[in-house]
Amino acid sequence: MLATSPWKRALLAVTSVVAVGLVAGCGGAAQAPDASGGVSATAGGTPGAGGDLVLVQAKGTKTLDPVAAVSPEDIAPMYELYDTLYRLSDDGRTLDPSLATAAPVASAGGTVWTIGLRTDATFSDGTPVTAADVAFSLDRARTSKSAFSFLLGGIDSVTASDEHTVVIKTPEPSATLVPALGSWVASILPKGLAGKTDDAFFAAPVGSGPFVLGTWERGRSLRLTKNARYWQPGKPYLDAIQWNTVPDANTRVSQVQGGQADVASDVPFSQVASLKAGSAVTAGTFPATYTSMLIFNQRHAPFADVHVRRAIARALDREAITKSTLYGAGRPACSLLPPAMPFAATPACPPFDVAAAKAELARSAFPQGFPVELTIDNLPESSTTAQIIQAELAAIGVTVKIKVVDSGELYTVYGQQAYQMGLAAWASDIPDPDEQLSFILDPEAGGNAYYTGYSDAKVTALIKQARSSLDPAARTAAYAQVQDIVVQDVPQLPLSYRDNAYVWRRSVQQFAVNPMGVIDLAAVGVQE
């Protein structure tokens, strides 16, 4: 569902390089900043050294183990504590080398990948980062039973040919290997976790990222301090960063206004314009690969019927939902892939039409409608969306009861499939559709088709076909077919493509959020 930081020109030079060359050249154009000027509204200049940065968010960090992280608040610290072979660029669409020195050298028809490593990178305890550490880390991630291990599941083997060279073998050409190597799942850890158990190591982890663990109250606060051994000269600028959990959106805004915090995420979209005019703070929205959607538990009898799902798709006015919740910081959704994602298409989505919805429902096993429970989190936009859904589905005989759970528990409920219909979202972590479409549509990829139980052999085959093709045109065609099929199958119903809204103090320098929702905190500073 979620997050990263640098990948770029050097990688584009690789012959037929899979991931990077394709994602840079084959997708839709990146979204421009909205009228609020989010991506450029930050204090300029090279940040000065020193200072602390406090960020407030709706949910807290529960794990520091990369293979266990599945949500944004767990993933964000991974990019600060650990490093990866490649990192997202500031625009979130290409890759830069990080622990790697250059793009991988592909051979054997794109099934053997040779990657050279930096010789000056060390872990925070001073131990050099070696190819053996990389091999261990990637093997640990790809063989884990975590929700996102499928990102590296196409790897056959990882070996260290010498101290600073890694060779990765894949059973077939891989168009998604390099983006996966830039994801948090592929964080590089010391070989053997430095001889510690998982619990002991991740209680006090050692990484090669720009920050190290300071203090951590699980789910409540996480403080990281500057890594004095970080390999990138001059970075990070900050002495420390701290995430505090503040569930209420208005309280998060008030803390930034009052100086108790420097940055707040998930700001109510209705407040962005007024906050931007403030003297001490500013606010903005950042283009994102964020899609809000309804998910349907197909274990619940009505939703196993495609005509029911199609009826709901016709009965909901996605434009009205978007206008009522996003205040111009988004657009109605159609495809599962948002416009900022490469290979996003424009399938023929059925328009809002209550009469057509009733006719579709009449073809189902529930022609007169049925009662259903809609599970949502406790964020304001979710409540507004749920109330509109409740009112609009009543017009076709579907009686909606809204169930609110704490935002920190929402995906636990979904993961157990202890829901009937749910309001969910997806924000991609890599600039390639494979992560999103695999997790959302492939029942074997780790998320049981985003907790819906949906399964379609043709869709799964097309996703795998696109993953193993080095031909941009072939990938485009495969992903277009997938998007066309799921518009008709409606395993999930996309509602809106949403930007990310933040408020931050004007003393914060170089604050920006890339389309994957990641802030490069090593590049951020504060004016004292």
Write the layout of secondary structure elements.
Blueprint: H1 9-12, H2 18-25, E1 52-57, H3 72-81, E2 86-88, E3 95-97, E4 105-107, E5 112-116, H4 131-143, E6 157-162, E7 165-169, H5 177-181, H6 198-203, E8 211-217, E9 221-226, E10 240-245, H7 249-258, E11 263-265, H8 272-276, E12 281-296, H9 306-315, H10 318-326, E13 330-332, H11 354-362, E14 370-376, H12 380-394, E15 398-404, H13 410-415, E16 421-427, H14 433-441, H15 448-451, H16 457-467, H17 472-489, E17 492-505, E18 508-509, E19 525-526
Parallel strand pairs: 1-10, 1-11, 14-15, 14-16
Antiparallel strand pairs: 2-3, 4-5, 5-7, 6-7, 8-9, 9-10, 11-17, 12-16, 12-17, 13-17, 18-19
Write structural notes for this entry.
The longest helix has 18 residues, at 472-489. A hairpin with a 3-residue loop joins strand 8 and strand 9 (221-226). With 528 residues, the chain is α+β, with helices and mostly antiparallel strands. The chain contains 17 helices and 19 strands. It is globular and about 70 Å long. The strands form four sheets. Strands 1, 8, 9, 10, 11, 12, 13, 14, 15, 16 and 17 form an eleven-stranded mixed beta sheet that branches. Strands 4-5-7-6 form a four-stranded antiparallel beta sheet, covered by helices on one side. The chain folds into two domains: 9-30 and 37-209 and 507-526, Dipeptide-binding Protein, domain 1, CATH 3.90.76.10; 287-499, Dipeptide-binding Protein, Domain 3 (Dipeptide-binding Protein, domain 3, Roll), CATH 3.10.105.10.
